[in-house]
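Re: export button greyed out
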Amino acid sequence: KQEVTQIPAALSVPEGENLVLNCSFTDSAIYNLQWFRQDPGKGLTSLLLIQSSQREQTSGRLNASLDKSSGRSTLYIAASQPGDSATYLCAVHNQAGTALIFGKGTTLSVSS
Amino acid sequence: SQTIHQWPATLVQPVGSPLSLECTVEGTSNPNLYWYRQAAGRGLQLLFYSVGIGQISSEVPQNLSASRPQDRQFILSSKKLLLSDSGFYLCAWSLGLGDTQYFGPGTRLTVL
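Workaround output, generated via the alternate export path:
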């Protein structure tokens, strides 16, 4: 059974700092991996999707990497801003592509 | 552009009462549709997905059911709510299996 773990559960950084969020999964037979952002009481916003054949994907100040063989992904946020404060969720698609399996998230707080 | 709607935004229901949550998608045809639940202290869990009208797959046995009466309409129902049905219910859509999933704003359900 696929399990997704995100470490740390919470992270506080000062504005301007570069940071890395970690995600690990137990079964490397994934279709792809998706990173989301969730603001308190809100739905999920898709940030990046990495296909299983890709190593990384970039969007603005965000860079996500995928090492399928070791079951790891990282989300790198450059020059963090207070507006980046949110919970970041990592999710892997099962091999059939029918279901996203989510981690419990990392709650990020960026102080000005 | 595509838009996903969910209603109601919040709902408080007594134990044993029925439930109907609705999700609609605009701006795309024949989307894959998904229902997820986010319970307190737990990660997001896929409940149902649908690849077409009348086609529903259930991921976990539970007190809930889903229906897709129209191409862009997905309904989550229960005949008798349990306390354990409380949570944040999110609807999502994608173009195909394994594609990026886009989430709605969610419905906060409290069962008393």
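The mean pLDDT of chain B is 93. The button fix ships in the next patch.
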